[in-house]
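Record passed on underneath.
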Amino acid sequence: MKFILLLLTTTLLSFISKAQIDSTLLKRIPRDTSLQSMNMDAVYNRPFLQVGKLPVSVGGYLEADYQYIGEDGVTEGHTFRVPRVTLFVASSIHRKIKFLSEVEFEEGGREISIEFAALDISLHPLLNLRGGIVMNPIGAFNQNHDGPKWEFIDRPIGMTDMLPSTWSNVGFGLYGKQYIDNWGFGYEVYLTNGFDDSIINNSENRTFLPAAKKNSERFEESNNGQPLLTGKFSFGKRKIGEIGFSYMGGIYNTYEEDGLVLDERRRLNVFAIDFNTTVPSIQTYIVGEWAWVNLDVPQTFTQQFGDKQKGGFVDFVQPILQGQLLGFERATLNIAFRLEYVDWNVGNFRETGGKIGDDLWAFVPAISFRPTAQTVIRLNYRVMQQRDILGNPPAKIGGVQFGVSTYF
């Protein structure tokens, strides 16, 4: 709480300074777009505002939307939301020492979470130390989740309701990257606190990794004294794209307390692959991610708690107009669509051999207008079907979503 108050105070002082300082002293920290970047750079690849020669830079983004969604012909009507406002505060302590924090305010400030607050010390391009609250690099979306970067209002279901989105923990790790001609190679490896028994003991009544996000004690101590290992290797070629392979795993349950053995050690393993590419001739941008979850579930649990899960998404974004539009010099009008699939319980019933349900697929066509690269206005239509564990006829979900998202 003290950290949050300090963060807000620093930000407030920065904005007060902006009001008192000549506007010519305000400047956006430029990004060198001629340099190659990878998904691992997403944490710093954001617009920041610097006031004069102050050592602190600030930034953030806002998401606001409207939706009219129905399920099997029943709807809750018209809904307006501000799902999140996120604040960044960064400081360059030394040319080789950087600090960045990311604080997210959800549901009008009812929930406040520190998603990232880490110190980076650069020793060599291939050897950098990071410590603090780090974002586990499983897949690509977990690190590259900022709303203004996407043409879709909802985050991918597989990366929010199967994997925990914006999943971060306290820990330390190493990362590095190297470029050879047009090729780039990067790696990240971290040891952090991790999951707990809530992933199989929760109100969802299924294996549900996002339930662990509610345990704020993971920022103070490990649930079982065993670290969570997260590692990722990525490579890509300039003007073509990038592919990444990642792993996250460790003991998740409290198997011992005060020397008393409560259970055997139960392990969680997550594997993910992500990619992005642009078709040069027509500038079609394609990005996707797929993940597999394997979990040691106690035999005493019913089969509704799956020991295997899989899911992911793929987005296609096609610019149809670019240039001067509606008074904006570098505007873009896109059409896009997203395909999603999640299976929370892969396998068959032991008694009957029939396939276990509890899966979902979705198709989301979209139109987006970007007056600038940092702001997006988006219109989505969501079509979704979800089956229960018994495989009964699926619930049919559909509706319109409209929203805006912008960096500031």
Summary: The chain has one domain: 2-407. The radius of gyration is 22 Å.
